[in-house]
Amino acid sequence: MTYCVAMLLDTGLVFLSDSRTNAGVDQISTFRKSTVFSKPGERVLVLQSSGNLAITQTVISILKEEIDTGCSVGAAAAATAHGTRPNLMTAPNLFEAARCVGDALRELHRRDAGPLKDFGVDFNASLILGGQIKGEPPRLFSIYSAGNFIEATTDTTYFQIGESKYGKPIIDRVLRRTSSLNEAVKCALVSMDSTIRSNLSVGLPLDLVIMKRDRFKVARHISIDADNDYFRGIRGRWSEALREAFVQLPEPDWLSSVARDTAD
User: Is the pTM value of this prediction over 0.85?
Assistant: First the structure.
């Protein structure tokens, strides 16, 4: 299982993903689930992935090959009919970049979905693409297995993929478009900690990517492991703060009411 979260703010974007994959309790491996594509000064994109690892890794390989070769893999007919299609480094905007990812998913589905089904394996992949291309503001997309996608709007501050339910409540309570990048990082780390505590299939190390608006480069790309002092401090202080807040909540008076009713 995987947990990835991407946050779109007025001042930039924050991406956080875990790196654990497993096919059982005794088959645990580590794979990075955030990939950066950048052309400093012109564009910076981050692609996060969840689902069948072989599928998502192949999609990333297709996208990289398209960049290296300058044409779309398996799309010769379309390229002939409509001209060379853009790749992540030549797409004029984030919408077209999301289409590149969707096209790669559809190409892989056309080739592999049938054989996978014969082996009882579902074609399962979810991705998040976010970043900024010069000439437009930062944008964020959630891309589904079918290659279709949705874009974050002014009412949408974040997207999650993978094991999302445990980390969602803190984001809904805390995050706003006007939040600072530092606040978003704190929120993402607390969200990840909640997920790690509740699901053993999500684990360290973490990939944290921060990008500032209109800088067109990654501001920070950090690998966070069990020895990271800041993350350890966040986990401990958040747990203590929750316990203290719980203690401060007023006691319910239902039991005392039952006692009075019985006495009467």
Answer: yes
Q: What is the pLDDT of residues 108-131, one digit of tens each?
A: 999 999 999 999 999 999 999 999
CATH number at residue 244: 3.60.20.10
Say how many domains are in the chain: 1
Burial 70-92 (b: 16+ CB within 10 A, else e): eebbbbeeeeeeeeebbbbbbbe
Residue 263's identity, in one-letter code, is A
Q: Which two tokens stand for residue 6?
A: 């991407």
End-to-end CA distance of the chain, in Å? Answer: 56
Q: Which amino acid is at 215?
A: R
Give the range of the structural domain holding residue 37, as residue numbers without chain letter.
3-263
Full DSSP string of 110-163: HHHHHHHHHTT----EEEEEEEEETTS--EEEEE-TTS-EEE--TT--EEEEES
Task: Output DSSP code: residue 73.
Answer: T
Distance CA 5, CA 231 (A): 16
Q: What's the pLDDT score for residue 9?
A: 98
For tokens 């890794």, the residue is 57
Residue length of the chain: 264
Q: What is the 3-state secondary structure (H, E, C) of 30-63?
A: ECCCEEEEEECCCEEEEEEEEECHHHHHHHHHHH
Query: For 138-144, which contacts have Cβ atoms below 8 Å and span 24 or more sequence positions?
Result: 138/8, 138/12, 138/13, 138/211, 138/213, 139/8, 139/93, 139/94, 139/95, 140/6, 140/8, 140/13, 141/94, 141/95, 141/98, 143/98, 143/101, 143/102, 143/105
Which position has the token pair 């790196």?
19
